[in-house]
Write a structure and sequence with these properties.
heterodimer; A: alpha/beta; Purple Acid Phosphatase, chain A, domain 2; seven-stranded mixed sheet; six-stranded mixed sheet; 13 strands; about 20% strand; B: alpha/beta; Immunoglobulin-like; 2 domains; four-stranded mixed sheet; 1 helix; 8 strands; about 20% helix
C-alpha cells in the first residue's frame, strides 16, 4: 500500500498516523499540510498559539463552505439561515481573509428561487466576494440545474452542466458536477462528456502543479450503501494521479472525513445547516438530531491554504461552537 | 359554550371522514373487481425507502406517494415511462394514473439508491 503518513514537520509531537490512515472524525479543528503525499497535522488550538505557521499575505488561502440547505426548517436545525450567517461571521473575523470561497453544493433545500434569494442576500454580508460553486442534488431538483447555473456560474467559463476550471497562484482548481442524470440504484456520476473534458483540461499541466478538485458528492467510496460515492470517480482520479499534489474537497455527507492515498488527499466538509450520521451508524442518512447545545459543534467550515514554494496545501476544519 | 359546538362538530365530522376512509380502504381491498378507478394505492416514503417497494395495481387506477421523511424525495420513472414528480417535501404527495399493463421501475433522483416497482395488471 502506498499510503503513508509522515508528520511532525513542525515538531509539535502529534502522532496522528493511525488516526489519518483510517478515516478521521474531527469535530474540532484540525490542520494538516500535504506535500507530495507527506502529511503533517496540527490542532486548531496549536495553530492559534503559533501565529508564524500561518501563511503570509502573499500565500493563497481559500475557504470551503458546504451544504447550507437554505429552506430546511426541521427538528435538526430550525434556523439554517442563522447558522449560515454565523459561518459567514467566522469568515469575516479571520485575521487573514480568504482569497475566495468555494461552496460545495446544497445551497438550498428544495431548489426554490426564494431559497436561492435568501442565500444570496445573506452572503452579501461576507467580506470575501469571490465565490466558486458546484451544485448539490438539492440545487437541481426540478429543472436540471438551470436556475443554479443562471445564478452561480457567471464568473467562470462553465462547460456542459456546469463544470469548469481556473488557476490561482499556480494552483489549478477544478469544479465538477456529479449530481445530475443519476441512474436508478446508482451513485453520484460525472458522465463521459465531463470526464473527457477533464482529461483534456489537465493534459498540458506539469506534474508539479498542485490540483484542487471540488464536487458535491464524495469522489471516493465513503459509503455506497447510502449513495455516498461517485460511480465513475476512479476514471477521473486516473487522469489526476500523476500530479504530485491532489486535494479533493467534497460536501454532501455533513461531517469531516479525511483519507490519504499516496499523494491524493480526500476531505469532506461539515455542513452549515445540520449534521448527518456517521456512515452506517443510523438506519438512514437523514438529518441527525442532536441536543441544541451540541449543534454548532457539528456545523462548520474548512479553510485551505497553499504556501508558495512549498507545494503544500493545508486544510483546517473549524466548527461554529 | 356555543363556541365549542362548531369545534365539536368539526371533530366529529373529521372522525367520521377518517372512519369512512378506513372503511373504503377495507372495502376496496376486498372488492377487487369493483371501484377500480377510485381505489387508492398508496406508497409511503419513509426512512429513505418506498413502502411497499413493489405494488401491483390495475390499469386505470391511481398510485399516490406520500413523503414521510424530512428529506425531499422524487419519483422518476426509469426510461421515462410516466411523468416525474417535482421534489416532494415532508408530507407532500404525488399521484399518477397508471395505464398500459406492464412492470414500471422508478427511483428517487435525489437518492438513487431508493428504487421501487409498479406492476400494472389489466
Amino acid at each position: 500500500m502506498s499510503d503513508y503518513i509522515s508528520h511532525d514537520h513542525e515538531h509539535d509531537g502529534i502522532d496522528r498516523r493511525g488516526f489519518l490512515q483510517c478515516m478521521a472524525w474531527a469535530g474540532t479543528g484540525l490542520l494538516w499540510t500535504v506535500s507530495g503525499g507527506v502529511l503533517a497535522s496540527k490542532t486548531l488550538a496549536q495553530i492559534a498559539k503559533a501565529e508564524d505557521s500561518l501563511p503570509s499575505a502573499t500565500d493563497l488561502s481559500f475557504l470551503q463552505i458546504s451544504d447550507s440547505h437554505i429552506g430546511f426548517s426541521k427538528e435538526a436545525n430550525k434556523d439554517v439561515t442563522e447558522t449560515f450567517k454565523i459561518a459567514l461571521d467566522r469568515i469575516n473575523a479571520m485575521p487573514t481573509p480568504p482569497s475566495f470561497l468555494i461552496h460545495t453544493g446544497d445551497i438550498t433545500q428544495l431548489s426554490k428561487p426564494e431559497e436561492f434569494d435568501t442565500f444570496d442576500q445573506v452572503l452579501k454580508s461576507c467580506k470575501t466576494k469571490d465565490v466558486f460553486y458546484v451544485p448539490g442534488e438539492h440545487d437541481v431538483l426540478n429543472d436540471g440545474g438551470k436556475l443554479y447555473r443562471d445564478r452561480y456560474l457567471k464568473s467562470v467559463e462553465a462547460k456542459g452542466s456546469g463544470w469548469y476550471s481556473f488557476n490561482k497562484n499556480g494552483v489549478h482548481f477544478i469544479g465538477l458536477v456529479n449530481v445530475l442524470d443519476l441512474q436508478a440504484g446508482g451513485l453520484g456520476q460525472l458522465g463521459d462528456e465531463q470526464l473527457e473534458w477533464l482529461e483534456a483540461d489537465v493534459k498540458d499541466l506539469g506534474t508539479s502543479t498542485p490540483i484542487v478538485v471540488f464536487a458535491h458528492i464524495p469522489l471516493w467510496a465513503v459509503y455506497p450503501q447510502w449513495g455516498w460515492g461517485t460511480s465513475d470517480s476512479e476514471r477521473a482520479l486516473g487522469y489526476l494521479k500523476r500530479f504530485g499534489s491532489l486535494t479533493v474537497l467534497n460536501g454532501h455527507i455533513h461531517q469531516v472525513l479525511q483519507k490519504v492515498e499516496g499523494n491524493v488527499t480526500f476531505h469532506t466538509a461539515m455542513s452549515t445547516a445540520f449534521p448527518q450520521p456517521e456512515p452506517g451508524k443510523a438506519p438512514n442518512p437523514g438529518p441527525l438530531k442532536v441536543p441544541s447545545e451540541k449543534l454548532r459543534s457539528m456545523l462548520g467550515l474548512t479553510s485551505v491554504q497553499y504556501k508558495q514554494g512549498k507545494s503544500a496545501l493545508a486544510v483546517v476544519d473549524s466548527n461554529l461552537s | 359554550m356555543t363556541t365549542f359546538i362548531p369545534k365539536n362538530k368539526t371533530a366529529v365530522l373529521l372522525c367520521g371522514i377518517a372512519f369512512l376512509n378506513l372503511s373504503l380502504f377495507a372495502i376496496a381491498g376486498e372488492m377487487k373487481n369493483e371501484e377500480s378507478t377510485t381505489k387508492q394505492n398508496r406508497i409511503e416514503i419513509k426512512d429513505f425507502a418506498f413502502n411497499p417497494q413493489t405494488i401491483t395495481v390495475k390499469s386505470g387506477e391511481k398510485v399516490t406517494w406520500i413523503n414521510r421523511d424530512e428529506e425531499p424525495h422524487t419519483i422518476v420513472s426509469v426510461g421515462k415511462q410516466f411523468k416525474k414528480s417535482t421534489a416532494l417535501d415532508t408530507d407532500q404527495e404525488f399521484t399518477i394514473t397508471v395505464g398500459t399493463p406492464g412492470t414500471y421501475e422508478y427511483f428517487c433522483s435525489v437518492h438513487p439508491k431508493m428504487t421501487g416497482t409498479i406492476v400494472v395488471e389489466k
